[in-house]
Amino acid sequence: MAKVFITGVSGQDGGYLAEQLLAAGDEVHGLVREQDRPTPDGSGPQLDAAHLHVADLTDGAAVTGLINEIDPDEIYNLAGMSSVARSWAEPVATGLVSGLAAATVLQAAWELSERRGRSVRVVQAASAEIFGNPAVSPQDESAPIAPVTPYGAAKAYAHHMVHVYRGRGLHAVSAILYNHESPRRPATFVTRKITRTAALIARGEADELVLGNLDARRDWGWAPDYVDAMVRAARAETPDDYVVATGVSRSVSEFVAAAFDRAGIQDWAKYVRVDPAFVRPVDAVDMVGDASRARNRLGWSPTKSFPEIVAAMVDTDLSN
Ligand code: GDP
């Protein structure tokens, strides 16, 4: 039984991770902000058996104190501003939460490891956004770090700090996660916005879907699979960087077509309007990851196909 500490336990990934580890019998501690405490209506993650600690990840003293008190075997640093779109409006907050805060976690984990003579295993949730607008496709762990968004720059700092602390002997992993979706994805992400609106249109409760760039291509995977990759990476013998991706990218319009089809609407184009307000100042054209290292070393592979992911999301939205 491992004792784990998860920051961002109230988010999509943190919830799935906590559920997976609780089911396996691990002792799960989670960090939540006061305003993000899970709602007891049963719609979110089932965290009753987890120990929740209320603090803000940017409160270094509080987070360090908690890590010392919990004395975890593993730390998953998943908290952060998860929206690339929002990072343009809030670049400083993004830098503090998704970038600098990782230094607090890594330093606290390193000091604790030194004291007890055994390394805490830290997994930092990095992002494909650290590669910016990549010249190579697909990207593996050797792709140049060249972010083009405030979110990507913050995540790149955290990724570099993982390397710094790995150099000091900490068992620190950087999981370079490509887009990963689920029915728990907030509608700030394009996938959930599409599936939710498709369900509303199918029920006659909305008449259009307003989007930005329809040609952007993303490598969309299934969030619980990505959480599983992080656990495997934490528990591997040596720490490393791992791209976690399906290896296939699709355009936003392909996602729209698949979602509308699932909702029973064939002529999706007549419901979709492009509004420049949703087009970003800079946006990667095509992100697609090569997860060979995770497949070969961790025995990881995605369990859900693109149509299955779309179906799971649309079906949830149709039933709500
Ligand atoms: P991201 O890749 O982490 O930024 O995930 P998102 O789901 O927010 O965006 C995926 C892609 O969809 C990006 O290329 C966006 O520019 C594009 N996109 C097009 N229209 C929209 C929209 O209305 N909302 C969002 N969030 N993204 C959109």
Automatic annotation (TrEMBL):
Catalytic activity: GDP-alpha-D-mannose = GDP-4-dehydro-alpha-D-rhamnose + H2O
Gene3D superfamilies, per the entry: NAD(P)-binding Rossmann-like Domain, UDP-galactose 4-epimerase, domain 1
GO MF annotations in UniProt: GDP-mannose 4,6-dehydratase activity
Enzyme superclass (EC): lyase
Pfam families assigned: GDP_Man_Dehyd
Annotated GO biological process: 'de novo' GDP-L-fucose biosynthetic process
Described function: Catalyzes the conversion of GDP-D-mannose to GDP-4-dehydro-6-deoxy-D-mannose.
Family: Belongs to the NAD(P)-dependent epimerase/dehydratase family. GDP-mannose 4,6-dehydratase subfamily.
Name the record gives this protein: GDP-mannose 4,6-dehydratase
Species whose genome carries this gene: Nakamurella panacisegetis
